[in-house]
Amino acid sequence: MMQNWVLYHIPYMHEREMLRASQHFYEQMKMRRSVRSFSSKPVPLKIVQNLIKTAGKGPSCSPSAGNAQPWKFCVVVSDVRKAEIRALIEADEKENHIRRHGEGSEWVMGVSQLEQTWTRPYLTDAPLLLIVCHEIFTTVENKEIRLFQYNELSTAISVGMLLSAIQYVGLSTVVTSPLNAGPQISRLLRRPQNECVGISSSFAFYKADDESVSELELLIV
């Protein structure tokens, strides 16, 4: 056996069990929606920790090239910090709508189906705001080394596992791009210079008395 290799074992599952498990998982995942109405009910810390461990912490469940694990998950619970992040994202979204793209642009027309503007109240409504960063370079023996080992792709895979885990435990989420506000958010959270903000995600219990979730028509190709 090669050095540092470990034996791999997964419990055997009969095909009937596999079918039942795969169907159950699918039924859970197909209920996932981008939710913008959250309850203020706090999510227990241990659940949050388990979700992040699933996405990638320590002996990671998520794959990454060279096992580099380039992601960092920043959990924001401070109302003040959430409000500051919301202000940064909304200011950039407003800039996108009004100046960068223009009212009649294809991008603005596309998101207009969602009946939303640049306001992002869910960033402060949800008790938890997750900022996902990824490393863009690392330092070895005081020398800066750029990361080309699919760091963004590896982080995207870990986010996919995170969203699945959030859905599996009965929580709701919405993913938001920070667009050009990423560097400001990074400085606000005092992240090191070798990290880049990728996405933000609010997640919490769904606000049960709000039935306003809409669904865009899906095009099956």
Automatic annotation (TrEMBL):
Q: Which domain of life is it from?
A: Eukaryota
Q: Name one GO biological process term.
A: tyrosine metabolic process
Gene Ontology MF, one: iodotyrosine deiodinase activity
Q: Which UniProt keywords apply?
A: Flavoprotein, FMN, Oxidoreductase
Boundaries of each Nitroreductase domain copy? 30-193
GO cellular component annotations, sorted alphabetically?
Answer: plasma membrane
What family classification does the UniProt entry report for this protein? Belongs to the nitroreductase family.
User: What name has this protein been given in UniProt?
Assistant: Nitroreductase family protein
Q: Which species expresses this protein natively?
A: Necator americanus
Q: What is the lineage of its organism?
A: Eukaryota, Metazoa, Ecdysozoa, Nematoda, Chromadorea
